[in-house]
Design brief:
The structure holds 2 protein chains of 2 kinds.
Chain A: H1 6-9, E1 13-15, H2 19-36, E2 40-48, H3 49-54, H4 60-68, H5 81-87, E3 91-96, E4 105-113, E5 118-127, E6 130-136, E7 139-143, E8 149-155, H6 160-170, E9 175-182, E10 188-195, H7 201-208, E11 213-219
Parallel strand pairs in A: 2-3
Antiparallel strand pairs in A: 2-4, 4-5, 5-6, 6-7, 8-10, 8-11, 9-10
Helix pairs in contact in A: 2-4, 4-5
Chain B: H1 6-16, H2 20-32, H3 36-59, H4 72-82, H5 88-106, E1 110-112, H6 122-134, H7 138-158, H8 163-166, H9 168-186, H10 191-205, H11 221-240, H12 249-262, H13 279-288
The chains are: A alpha+beta, B mainly alpha.
């Protein structure tokens, strides 16, 4: 039997109308934006299934653009996210597509960066505002944003896991879940580390200082910050 | 960990001689590893958002994103101010509040999913209206929200709160059951009475399908929030008079789950049946999509 907390039942605080099509969409986009990093010029939103059929009426489109701009699912600016995008010179387009045998509410983000780099991120809104990012640049991952999540990309070599976890241990940060992924031995590996408490800037910098670290990103959980919405 | 059934919930409360809200608060503190103040303040924030969304569309004529609904909450509220109503100012005000939340939601305003966005009007309408009438303060309303979530946890564990899985009975039905239990406790009813209320509410709408026009959370969702609030409030009086549910809460929840599972997928949020595929439903869909 699955366990539920009080705020799984009452919550999230969100911009309507649909937890899966609006709140979940904003959250997916915010996560995609965080993963790809600053300097986003243009985004193609490739919508699958129910997302593709009902995105206008559910405000999925505005939620997605808001999320890319860093808005949280409870941010009232989501309603006018298109004009915010114009102000910030963000280009976007919505494309109805078929992403295969996936959840009905699935999206692929194709993110074009100032640097010329293109980042592709796929994820699903799995109900109640919960999400799952399952692919980043062709690499399978598993991210749900329930916990503060560190995404660390580094050179695949012995000892990296031990060095990073030592920094976390010294900072008294408890690792709740940990996964590592890589495509080719000795090249780029990605560690997804969900923790009980967030890290913050200085700890992220200590990890960067370890050497052979390509990037360190942190994603805050959806529910965090809700006590500050009013 | 939170108990698994209504029966266990009543036992746990009676063992400690506490209410459902107190049991729920204590369990949440343990689960989070936080303290009472943190947990209460999170709920205080929920209450604030609920109050705003229950109030806004009474005074402002809002329009949903699709343009299908909006303005009905204000119409009803104005009627309660200007006309002699049949069911009384209290009931009509509660109905208008439920509509208000649903309209705010459909217009991309801020709401609390309670337990879902589609059913976000019932709990605020019932709790706020009851508290107003019974002269209860914010702390007592916050307690009521904990009672409601305690009952919701049991339903989520044994059935579902999702329209896609169990139809509207699982969304609006659960919301109304949670709301009735909360007000019964607010009025001094026992945990057992609260669950009698929750059981009766669900029985009253068992089998209700989820058939949104154009797949949007608008028609018939907003009015079903209103109906859910009325169902909850009338059941509170029934239970406070001493009437009980012949079928216990746990049995009713299990029946609701089975009924939900046996609904064809056309009637579970896919917009492929019911109101959604009526002649007018299809016309409206073609207009907005």
């Amino acid at each position: 039997m699955k366990n539920y907390g009080v705020f799984d039942i009452l919550g999230p605080v969100m911009i309507g109308p649909s937890s899966s099509h609006t709140a979940g969409a904003a959250r997916l986009a915010k996560m995609a934006s965080t993963i790809s990093g600053e300097g986003i010029e243009k985004v193609e939103f490739i919508l699958h299934g129910s997302f593709a059929k009902t995105y206008k009426g559910h405000g999925t489109d505005r939620a997605l653009v808001g999320g890319i701009l860093g808005m949280d699912p409870w941010d009232i600016r989501i309603r006018n996210s298109f004009s915010h995008a114009q102000d910030q010179k963000l280009e976007y387009s919505f494309i109805e597509g078929d992403l295969g045998d996936v959840h009905p509410n699935t999206i692929k983000f194709r993110i074009f960066k100032e640097s010329g780099r293109i980042v592709e991120i796929s994820g699903s809104s799995i109900g109640g505002g919960s999400i799952r990012i399952y692919e980043v640049d062709g690499q399978p991952v598993e991210l749900n944003g329930e916990y503060p999540t560190l995404i660390i990309s580094y050179k695949d070599q012995p000892g990296m896991l031990s060095k990073i976890s030592t920094v976390l241990y010294q900072s008294e940060i408890n690792i709740a879940f940990l996964k590592v992924f890589r495509n080719i031995r000795g090249e780029k590996a990605v560690m997804v580390c969900e923790t009980d408490s967030g890290c913050g800037r200085s700890i992220r910098q200590r990890i960067r200082d370890l050497g052979d670290i390509y990037s360190v990103k942190e994603i805050r959980p959806l529910k965090e910050g809700e006590e500050n919405v009013c | 960990m939170f108990v698994n059934t209504g029966k266990e919930l009543i036992e746990a409360c009676s063992k400690e001689n506490i209410s459902i809200s107190e049991y729920t608060i204590r369990t949440q503190i343990d689960t989070e590893g936080s303290n009472r103040e943190v947990v209460i303040n999170k709920m205080r924030n929920n209450l604030k958002v609920m109050k705003d969304s229950a109030e806004y569309a009474l005074k402002n004529s809002v329009k949903s994103v699709s343009g299908l609904i909006g303005g009905q909450a204000k119409t009803l509220y104005d009627y309660s101010l200007n006309e002699k109503t049949l069911t009384g100012e209290f009931m009509v005000r509660a109905m208008a509040r439920a509509l208000s939340c649903s309209e705010v939601n459909a217009a991309m305003g801020r709401i609390v999913a309670a337990p879902t966005a589609g059913s976000c009007g019932i709990l605020p309408a019932v709790i706020i209206s009851a508290a107003e009438k019974l002269e209860k303060n914010d702390e007592e309303m916050i307690n009521a929200l904990f009672t409601a979530s305690g009952v919701g946890i049991i339903i989520a564990k044994n059935a579902t709160l999702s329209g896609a899985e169990g139809g509207c009975q699982a969304e609006c039905g659960s919301a109304a059951a949670m709301a009735a239990a909360a007000v019964i406790e607010m009025m001094g009813g026992t945990p057992e009475m609260a669950l009698h209320g929750a059981a009766i509410v669900i029985k009253n709408i068992l089998g209700l399908v989820c058939d949104p026009v154009a797949g949007l959370v608008e028609i018939p969702c907003a009015k079903r929030n209103l109906a859910g609030a009325v169902n909850a409030l009338s059941t509170v009086d029934l239970v406070m008079s001493g009437v009980t549910s012949f079928i216990p809460f746990d049995d009713v929840v299990s029946a609701m789950y089975k009924v939900g599972k046996s609904l064809p997928c056309e009637l579970r949020e896919t917009a492929l049946g019911g109101i959604a595929t009526t002649e007018t439903g299809i016309l409206l869909k073609n207009k907005v999509l």
